[in-house]
Design brief:
- This protein has about 200 residues and is α/β, with parallel strands linked by helices.
- It has 2 domains: about 150 residues, Ribosomal Protein L4, Chain: A; about 40 residues, no CATH class.
- It is about 35% helix and about 15% strand.
- A 6-stranded mixed β-sheet has the order 2-1-3-6-4-5.
- A hairpin with a 5-residue loop joins strand 1 and strand 2.
- Helix 2 crosses helix 3.
- The longest helix is centred in the middle third of the chain and has 17 residues.
- The radius of gyration is 27 Å and the shape is elongated.
Length: about 200
């Protein structure tokens, strides 16, 4: 498939042939869902923790004698039945991550790129370079109509562009190796540089 290549000032800089294997697939929601779930689960801290009966601050002395009180038999006040006692089988620190094969992760990235291309939310620019002035870049972004955009560059992000984009709300930038399904789907517009297209085609071939 062919797509126009534009400049940051809105001018046309030719066109580019995009691989059908990356940008021409029929997006599958089940594949995208599995990859996004894998990403979010790996990102979850898993630091939730409650105190068990061995960690609460009450005395471990038996609160009253075993027999003859007419009440239930109890040991100490740390038992889960008592207020402020230990929690029974509560959450403990653990990893929420699970495995997903490299082949499937690559497939998910292909389907994410195809979903953006099919929805008409894919833009290819000649390069992502700037002098580092936020005001100038913000004006260009506004003229292009990008509200929530993710810009993916080549192997490295241009330092001036990254500095200028830092304070623009809704504009994020990643190198090609940082491209991932969750960030692509979260934004309204996916912006690729020509070098990003080459890098992604080499990575996902």
């Amino acid at each position: 498939m062919k797509l126009d290549v534009i400049k940051l000032d809105g001018g046309v800089a030719g066109d580019i042939e995009l691989s059908e294997d990356l940008f021409g697939l029929e997006p599958r929601a089940d594949i995208l869902h599995r990859v996004v779930r894998w990403q979010r689960n790996n990102a979850q801290a898993g630091t939730h923790k409650v105190k068990t009966r061995s960690e609460t601050s009450y005395s471990t002395k038996k609160i009253y004698r075993q027999k003859g009180t007419g009440g239930a038999r109890h040991g100490d006040r740390n038992a889960p039945i008592f207020r402020k006692g230990g929690i029974y089988k509560g959450p403990t620190p653990r990893s929420h991550g699970h495995d997903l094969t490299k082949k499937f992760r690559k497939l998910g990235l292909r389907h994410a790129l195809s979903a953006k291309a099919q929805a008409g939310e894919l833009v290819v620019i000649e390069n992502a370079e700037s002098e580092g002035k936020t005001a100038a870049l913000a004006k260009q972004v506004a003229n292009l109509g990008w509200k929530r955009a993710l810009v993916i560059d080549g192997a490295a992000v241009n330092e001036g562009f990254a500095r200028a984009a830092k304070n623009i709300e809704g504009l994020d930038i990643l190198p090609s190796m940082g491209a991932n399904v969750y960030d692509i789907l979260k934004r309204d517009t996916l912006v690729l540089t020509k070098s990003a297209v080459e890098a992604l085609e080499a990575r996902l071939k």
